[in-house]
Design a protein that fits this description.
single chain, alpha/beta, Rossmann fold, GMP Synthetase, Chain A, domain 3, 4 domains, 7-stranded mixed sheet, about 15% strand, elongated
Length: about 900
């Protein structure tokens, strides 16, 4: 790397890397690649255009958007023109954003069309990064001819960052060209990356860590920067694999999720896949600890190739990486580099280089960085970590009092972290000064250490520890699955047992004396740190018995975990979240909400939801994706991942016209006629069923003459009782019954071998709530396509009160795809004989009324609704309701 005095020289020299790939951005439909030559040209032209539009030297310019090539171009152009880049979190709360815009003094901003209104309210001129045309689009500022940019001095500001605000409103941190460049040069001297590398950057560029390490470092070397389309597991894997990433820059939470995904994938294959993996990983970690890292790379190469075949180095920053996790990553064959620093230090102070094997420490200081420990008294090795060097900032923006407090009288920066230096010069961190709890007995307690122990409890997801009345107390968030599976008292008991069990691992002065349970996650910064100033308020509120967090309505987005906030940067995911928030406004909606258990979305109701998702976002959720969804977070991830696969073939009607393609080999076996043994069972069962229903239950049949003589046709009955299929089967003549299939819920008709044998003999098809709705509808469509009759209960479940319930739209899709004659059927008396919830039937007369057959085209013309399948379902519901007997209407 050349030795420029400012980042401007680096920016102006981008073209020297020629046609090498500079940015590889994964989108929904394509991969956008920018060469260094093209990047340099656009940066120079945009810088010239901004200056022609009045951009002044040292003027702050806000960048308020998610990662994109256009974001990088705009940032480089602003700095190249001698102005100051102000990266701002696109998920920042309204109050924090208002403060940042006012404090920075910015008059213009690069943003997106969706976010622009938030800035215009503050009077900023918005330049749209997602608009290729128009006066507000960024391309409108590209100059045709070059303008000589202003040359800035190393002491001038290059960027203005705002801290995450764990203890209040964000503080402005100005970083000069010397701050950023000196740190960049020291880091590159570690030789962690080479020109042939390809760096994957999933972190938001409004943080100085990815800004410096993920953007400027690769640009200085001529390395390609890979931007994933989103932060879902499939999108990251796509970028890792298709982007041939060799370096991954992330935070500990990302690597924990990556390792958890590996174990989850193996666990789905059975314990005989997971147990050998863990054993081999243990051997690999042992080899790495003894200095043989290549052994792990060879031993677990098949696993690594499936995840990230080209990846060689993982870089972790933002917070401490758990040493055990670091060793597991090394055991998998990836080299691990960690670093420690702050926004105020531009950002790196210490580095654990690959091969150092000192993951219990924060690493050694970078060249040019000096560290010392401000010990409370002579002879004590531990204290606040102080730093000095060209990378350390000069002071906070507009905050002279805080600036004075941040430096010692002799000019050392107070990091706010507690730690010590060992004999080999490695820094070990033990907590934060501002977070350290000092009890009246003189004991110092690091809350993060206590939280880490508590969070190992089987039913505890998060814990936030604080001091109240000289005692340690905590806000505990139970795991969502534990909360759903337990009553309030049972959950409280389970958490208490966890707290008592985990507390035995702590010294007496670190044990919590009291805690409250919170239904919502703790508020964190974008890097995952607990907002401590919010923790006290949450504890007091819950201790008083106030539970506003449990009130109906969506969880505010600013209270999401960092990865969930980033997930909502995907437009499709955000559209679905906003729709869910309006559709289920009576439910406390969070990313952990279960669609099935909390929102009541069953197998057939998924059809409503997926059609709505497709209409609003263009994303089609396949059956395999639906099977993976256990929480709203999973749904948003699947929507974000599916958004780029919008094809005409995703039309559900088109898929149901060729239904066998939606069924696997096992599913297609259920479509075959029953075998000889099943046919032997069929006759005595049929005789017994007719004898019971025509005798004690006095079965009456009306309208049988309406049944079409030629198959296929679709029978659509109401559903009020488990007796309904038996009553309808007894009402059909034997020849028709032998050519009729039935849709049956697996939770009843397939739950044991006896019922499965009965279902096979009776031609019952498995409708499985765990399978996607199209796969279930595919059974019915395939039956009709093969020329058989079908019985399908369009309400989707038994009526709780005997009244006819609304139809699921799946019946409309089925008739759109397979337009056969449809016969409405009214079954009466079964609700009185065996209502929902009853264990045993009581004798009551039952009857079946067959209506006249109807053409689906006629239903579509008569029905109400925006889509054909909705019109068919609505008209069919009306036809079935007409068959209800007058005496039943009077009873209702």
């Amino acid at each position: 790397m050349d030795q420029p005095e400012t980042l401007q020289t680096l920016i102006h020299g981008l073209s020297r890397h020629g046609e090498r790939a500079a940015i590889v951005a994964f989108g929904k439909e394509r991969v956008e690649t920018w060469s260094y030559a093209r990047l340099a040209d656009h940066v120079a032209r945009l810088a010239a255009g901004l200056m022609a539009h009045g951009l002044q030297r040292g003027e702050p310019v806000v960048l308020f958007a998610g990662n994109s090539p256009q974001w990088i171009i705009a940032c480089l152009a602003v700095m190249g023109a001698g102005a100051v880049a102000v990266p701002v979190d696109a998920q920042m709360s309204r109050d924090e954003l208002r403060h940042v815009l006012r404090d920075s003094g910015a008059r213009r901003a690069f943003t997106t069309g969706e976010l622009a209104q938030r800035l215009r309210d503050a009077g900023l001129r918005a330049i749209l990064l997602d608009a290729e045309e128009g006066a507000d689009g960024w391309r409108a500022y590209l100059a045709e001819g070059g303008v000589e940019p202003l040359t800035v001095a190393p002491e001038e500001n290059a960027a203005l960052f705002y801290t995450s605000g764990t203890t209040g409103l964000p503080k402005g941190v100005p970083l000069t060209h010397r701050n950023l460049f000196s740190n960049l040069r020291a880091l590159l001297d570690q030789n962690l990356a080479y020109q042939d590398d390809r760096l994957l950057l999933p972190l938001p560029l409004h943080h100085v860590y990815p800004f410096a390490i993920g953007m400027f470092a690769p640009l200085a070397l001529g390395v390609a920067i890979i931007l994933p389309q989103g932060l879902t597991g499939p999108e990251l894997l796509r970028a890792l694999q298709e982007g041939q990433a060799t370096i991954l820059v992330g935070v500990p939470r990302l690597y924990a999720a990556l390792y958890a995904a590996i174990e989850t994938r193996l666990r789905q294959q059975g314990r005989w896949a997971l147990l050998p993996f863990r054993a081999l990983l243990g051997l690999a970690v042992t080899a790495c600890r003894r200095g043989w890292p290549e052994f792990g790379g060879w031993l677990l190469a098949p696993v690594r190739r499936r995840i990230a075949p080209s990846l060689r180095l993982v870089v972790s920053g933002g917070s401490a990486l758990d040493p055990d996790l670091a060793w597991k990553l090394e055991g998998l064959g990836w080299r691990v580099a960690t670093g420690y620093g702050l926004t105020e230090t531009a950002p790196i102070l210490t580095v654990n280089a690959p091969g150092a094997a000192r993951f219990d420490s924060a690493g050694r200081p970078l060249p040019g960085v000096a560290l010392r420990i401000d010990a409370p008294q002579p002879g004590v090795e531990r204290g606040e970590v102080l730093a000095k060097g060209p990378n350390v900032f000069a002071g906070y923006h507009h905050l002279p009092d805080k600036t004075r407090a941040a430096f010692t009288p002799d000019g050392w920066f107070r990091t706010g972290d507690l730690g010590y230096l060992d004999d080999d010069g490695y820094l070990h961190l033990t907590g934060r000064v501002s977070e350290m709890i000092v009890l009246s007995g003189g004991e110092n307690v690091d809350p993060e250490a206590v939280e880490e122990v508590l969070q190992q409890g089987a039913h505890i997801r998060e814990a936030g520890v604080l001091a109240r009345n000289d005692r340690l107390v905590a806000v505990i968030v139970p795991k969502p699955e534990a909360a759903r599976a337990s009553g309030e008292q049972e959950l409280a008991q389970l958490v208490r047992q966890d707290v008592e069990r985990q507390s035995r691992q702590l010294p007496s002065h670190r044990r919590i004396a009291d805690y409250v349970l919170s239904p919502d996650p703790l508020e964190r910064t974008s890097l995952g740190k607990i907002r401590r100033h919010k923790l006290q308020e949450r504890y007091e509120q819950l201790k008083r018995g106030d539970k506003p967090a449990q009130a109906p309505g969506p969880l505010p987005i600013e209270r999401f975990a960092p990865e969930d906030r980033q997930l909502l940067q995907d437009p499709a995911a955000r559209v679905v979240w906003d729709w869910l928030a309006g559709r289920f406004h009576e439910v406390r909606l969070t990313p952990d909400t279960s669609p099935h258990l909390d929102l009541g979305i069953d197998s057939l109701e998924w059809l409503n939801l997926t059609l709505e998702v497709r209409e609003r976002t263009g994303a089609s959720l396949e059956d395999a994706a639906i099977g993976r969804i256990a929480t709203v977070r999973d749904l948003l991830r699947e929507v974000a991942a599916a958004g780029r696969h919008v094809e005409a073939a995703a039309d559900p009607v088109a898929q149901l016209r060729e239904p066998e393609r939606l069924l696997d080999r096992r599913g297609q076996r259920w479509l075959e006629p029953p075998g000889p043994l099943a046919r032997v069972l069929e006759w005595p069962l049929l005789w017994l069923m007719r004898a019971v229903l025509r005798g004690p239950f006095q079965l009456q049949v009306r309208g049988r003459e309406h049944l079409p003589q030629a198959a296929p046709f679709l029978l659509v009955p109401n559903h009020a009782s488990l007796l309904d299929p038996l009553v309808l089967g007894a009402a059909l003549d034997t020849p028709r019954l032998q050519r009729t299939y039935w849709g049956g819920w697996t939770g009843i008709m397939f739950r044991n071998p006896v019922l499965r044998a009965f279902s096979r003999a009776a031609r019952v098809l498995p409708v499985d709530p765990q399978r996607g709705m199209l796969a279930n509808l595919a059974f019915g469509a395939a039956v009709l396509r093969r020329g058989y009759n079908l019985v399908w209960f369009p309400e989707g479940e038994r009526s709780p009160d005997g009244r006819l319930r609304p139809f699921r739209p799946g019946i409309g899709l089925l008739l759109q795809a397979q337009p056969v004659s449809v016969v409405p059927v009214w079954i009466a008396g079964t609700y009185q004989a065996l209502p929902r919830g009853a264990r045993w039937p009581r004798l009551h007369p039952v009857s079946v009324t067959f209506g006249a057959p109807i053409d689906p085209g006629e239903l579509e013309r008569q029905g109400q609704g925006d889509e054909p399948h909705l019109r068919i379902a609505a008209a069919l519901h009306e036809r079935l309701a007409r068959l209800r007997q007058p005496e039943e209407t009077a009873e209702a």
